[in-house]
Specification:
It contains 13 helices and nine strands. By secondary structure, it is an alpha/beta fold. Helix 7 links the parallel strand 8 and strand 9. It is elongated and about 65 Å long. The structure holds nicotinamide-adenine-dinucleotide. The site of nicotinamide-adenine-dinucleotide has 26 residues, from helix 4 and helix 11.
Length: 300
């Protein structure tokens, strides 16, 4: 396989594992993070530490970023990547950020002569380490094959969502749907309990009836019911409430700007904000069941 020179910026919980998989695929990875500890970890995984973004991207064929939020992405591209990378470099931002920031950065990159893609991921830290993330990509159709090839060592599926920003749009629409469906699932299990219906019976019935959805069948929030989930390990690991809340906020911001009516998404944001404010931002998002059952104290 052709060895590609990759610059990887942002080596946190997700980026660390992703960069390691690029190195494992025999690519030459120049890595940079503001955190020295993250940089040391990447070096141990076969990446070559750089002293700055400018140094990391200088001779890169592909630049991949995995940063916390929109302002970081705007800053890193606007102030550093676009000034120091070769125009032939393919730029791919895998962070989950607001649609507007993705479009602004894409516009700046294009105006400067670069190819750019927003490519947020579905899947958590374990999938990042295993190289089994799903990528939803917003980019020019002509650029998609190159983006797909560059993401392959980190991916189990890469889907072209549309033009610039469409990857971020897909990500927040999917996660808004997930937040709403999880809350609906939790409410239904809480009501079933009050009505004296056993959780395992309701699981079996709902899994085969029209209430069936991923939150019921694959990620059941009730401990001991259905396949193993974070509910079975005290809601540790999995998809943190704080992360779900971040995505729901992005969805509400986007909805407000686009003039879309998303009352269920707004309610989901409010409920996850309440759960987070009670100190449970680190718990898996399915733990909200315990708040709806009136048993939030059991989580402590
Ligand atoms: P993280 O905070 O662990 O990692 C972000 C890294 O970026 C940190 O190491 C930080 O030091 C670095 N960084 C910040 N500003 C920088 C700069 N200017 N230059 C270089 N490095 C900089 O976050 P994470 O969990 O890895 O998440 C990254 C992105 O992926 C977020 O947008 C998140 O929403 C998204 N995401 C996370 C998960 C998850 O389960 N953690 C799942 C899907 C998507």
């Amino acid at each position: 396989m052709h060895m590609t020179r990759i610059a990887f910026i942002g080596l946190g919980n997700m980026g660390g594992g992703m960069a390691a998989n690029q190195a494992k695929a025999q690519h030459h990875v120049r890595a940079f993070d503001l955190s020295a500890a993250a940089l040391d970890k990447a070096a141990a995984a076969g990446c070559h530490p750089a002293g700055s973004v400018a140094e990391a991207v200088a001779d890169a064929e592909v630049v991949i970023t995995m940063l916390p939020a929109g302002p970081h992405v705007r800053g890193v591209y606007g102030e550093q990547v676009l000034a120091h990378a070769a125009k032939s470099a393919l730029l791919i931002d895998c962070s989950t950020i607001d649609v507007d920031s993705a479009r602004v950065v894409a516009g700046q990159a294009k105006a400067a002569g670069f190819r750019f893609a927003d490519a947020p991921v579905s899947g958590g830290i374990m999938a990042a380490e295993a190289g089994t993330l799903a990528f939803m990509v917003g980019c020019d159709a002509d650029d998609f094959p190159a983006v797909e090839a560059a993401l392959a060592p980190m991916s189990r599926a890469t889907i072209h969502a549309g033009g610039h920003g469409a990857g971020q749009a897909a990500k927040i629409c999917n996660n808004m749907l997930l937040g709403v469906s999880m809350l609906g699932t939790c409410e239904a299990f809480a009501l079933a309990e009050k009505l004296g219906l056993a959780a395992d019976r309701f699981f079996e019935i709902a899994s085969k009836s029209s209430g069936q959805c991923w939150s019921v069948s694959t990620y059941c929030p009730v401990p001991g019911v259905g396949p193993a989930t974070p509910a079975d390990r005290a809601y540790e690991g999995g998809f943190a409430t704080a992360m779900m809340l971040k995505d729901l906020k992005l969805a509400q911001e986007a909805a407000a700007k686009a003039g879309a009516s998303t009352p269920m998404g707004a309610q989901a944001e409010a409920l996850y904000a309440l759960f987070d404010a009670n100190g449970f931002g680190g718990k898996d998002f399915s733990a909200v069941l315990q708040m709806l059952r009136g048993k939030i104290a059991d989580l402590n």
